[in-house]
């Protein structure tokens, strides 16, 4: 019996007349990098948003670590060990890099109704901030406001923030988008390293990266999960060739 | 570390100025300035507390004067019952002791803020602005309905509160009480903004969706912030009641809330110390313009529009060379 | 019973005034996403211009024409000079700038017309009262206000549901992106919508002239009531404005008329009047709070 950290069963979601998710099933194994691919408009981000709780499904279930989380709020899912990054980089623009990371550290450690002591001198922050900065290579930019970072640096920061919570499952929405070739290689290495400690579900357009990185892949077309399998199986699958790779 | 940044020089200069102002006023024979500057200090406390909401928590409250008014009425009502020797609700004795009524004023304002905030924070954006305004109006009409305490005409205090070691009837003593309370309040807000709590608040206002992805429900933090700001406004109200020895519904009029907002903006949004300069600028400008024309608002209005459109860093931002916190 | 009927008519008349105010404001909120505190100023401008023109010419229609033209022109001018620069700014900037506009307009009217309120009589052909039902005597002027308001509501309904411009405006109120996609000249449309809103406010102002006194600052009390209407009805929704306005108008009027009587049953007279008056003033805010607890986005939220 394989150890499934995440199970998606019969997930359905419509926006008006548009069926963005149609009866989607797939399982994610613990310790895998699991990619969701599909042509534009296949509903990949919609699925990811339903996993994170930013959108609630119309029907079906999301089971995380043997617990049904289909209807609970995003912040509660985060507390259970499910972290996400956004397609459009989402950091706290007005805060500095270290404040961004400090904020995600303190949100994962105890309560924050502490009104007096400087947050950067907090014990949790002092313990974890240097590592957190190092892990995503931003130590030198620590005092800079996030809005002045380059696109790639923001992405690094975002992944760094998602990691501070020591999540069990990390959801990444197009992490490679907008990265140069160098950035893609760097991020790929980072994800390979991370795989040892957690599971990653990512939506990605960069097919080379996906086929190199992913352990398993689910293909979505028009809101349906056509097939799930290893990269080799996906490459061989006839529907994949017609539905997706043919277009590429 | 850079101890001599432009910002710290501006703050230090401001501090020294306020500390020696009574001496300056006395040596130039303009004692009335002490009372004017006491007013500035009091409005500074209210404006700083509002800046916590506007500049840091991203909560645009258009009803902050309500909490100033509640603080003032607390002082007024306790004074009334003490003076008449007639217990409130039949069992709470009145008091004119500052050490009792000042904390009470803050507490009761905080309580009002808790109720109003808990309801208002269910909404956001434009709804929040209008709701806070409406609740402030409700508080205003409530105070108008307090027939026992003068209703529309308000309530006179026959003297200022007593504080051990101070004689508040002397303007200098009162001035320094205001200054010390403002100083303590500024330190508190400064620490607060840089604390764990403050970081969460700033994060929630910068990107509400992201903070939820971190496992935080911003509602409770925003509510706590609203309550703290309410308590600060209550303190300002208690001082204001003492300065004028008079409380009336006019304190809670919605234009007062608007003026507090103007002070925050003039001084510099999200700068903690800026609103002090903002309050000083607003009240001095009012004083100055009224010397030349009774229609000072005719000039103040357009000045405000121009500041909003062209100079959003505020006076403190210009002096201290800060960049704007929010885009 | 007669008293109740009379008070319902009064509530209807207040509701109509509030509807005229909130219809324009809710569109400005919904389409431009601008919070405009100065909306009450155009109500005041309408009242002052109407009263002055009526007094000068002796013709009530001249007064109404002056109020409509003046408030619409002032509105479009303000949109062109100030608000246009604030569309993509934070709400806080909009609040502060429009607060500045209120200060300006209030002081301007004080300078031109002085501090004393103006009094405006209804035109002679609308003076007096008629007996609607046996024993129910009601002022003709107030009936005319109600009729005019209903007529305007009908015209607005026609504009929004039957004309191209109205469709565009409605589309904009419920979906901002869509309006750009339709290839509409947005700048012009915004100016027109703003002008339409202030024109309605001016109409409300001049019609209220003979009922209330015309004075500086008269715009703010009605503005806050208008906010309550919009919050209850839902931002950007005309239907919400209709329902909210009637609800607020009736609750406010009936509360003030009947709460003292009800309280006198339980309390002694002097005390009852004070408590009742205070609760009656708060009634609409309580109504608003209750609505929001039940539906945080109002009764008819326009944005899906």
Would you kindly provide a written description of the structure presented here, covering whatever features stand out?
The complex is a heterotrimer of chains A (248), B (327) and C (304). With 248 residues, chain A is an alpha/beta fold. Helices cover 35% and strands 25% of the residues of chain A. Chain A folds into two domains: 4-90 and 167-245, P-loop containing nucleotide triphosphate hydrolases (Rossmann fold); 92-148, no CATH class. Chain A has helices at 44-52, 74-79, 97-107, 123-135, 151-164, 181-194, 207-213, 231-236, 238-245, and strands spanning 4-15, 18-29, 33-37, 59-64, 67-68, 82-84, 169-173, 199-203, 216-221, 224-229. In chain A, strands 6-7-8-3-9-10 form a six-stranded mixed sheet, sandwiched between helices. A four-stranded antiparallel sheet of chain A has the order 2-1-4-5, covered by helices on one side. Chain A is globular, with a radius of gyration of 18 Å. The model of chain A has no long low-confidence stretch (mean pLDDT 84). With 327 residues, chain B is mainly alpha-helical. Chain B has one domain (8-14, 32-320). In chain B, helix 3 (65-83) crosses helix 9 and helix 7 crosses helix 9 (218-244). The mean pLDDT of chain B is 89. Chain C is globular and about 60 Å long. In chain C, 75% of the residues lie in helices and 3% in strands. Chain C has one domain. In chain C, a hairpin with a 2-residue loop joins strand 1 (129-133) and strand 2 (136-139). Chains B and C meet through helix 5, helix 10 and helix 12 of B and helix 4, helix 9 and helix 11 of C.
Q: In one word, what is the shape of chain B? A: globular
Portion of residues in beta strands of chain A equals 25-35%
Shape by Cα distribution of chain A = globular
Rg of chain A (C-alpha, Å): 18 Å
The profile of the biggest β sheet of chain A is: 6 strands, mixed
Distance between the termini of chain A: 36 Å
- What percentage of amino acids of chain B are in beta strands? under 5%
Radius of gyration of chain B using CA atoms only: 20 Å
Overall domain count of chain B: 1
Mean pLDDT of chain B: 89
Full CATH superfamily name of the largest domain in chain A: P-loop containing nucleotide triphosphate hydrolases
CATH level 3 topology of the largest domain in chain A: Rossmann fold
Number of helices of chain A: 9
The count of β-strands of chain B is 2
Tally of structural domains of chain A: 2
Number of strands of chain A: 10
Indicate the CATH architecture of the largest domain in chain A.
Answer: 3-Layer(aba) Sandwich
Class of the largest domain in chain A in CATH? Answer: Alpha Beta
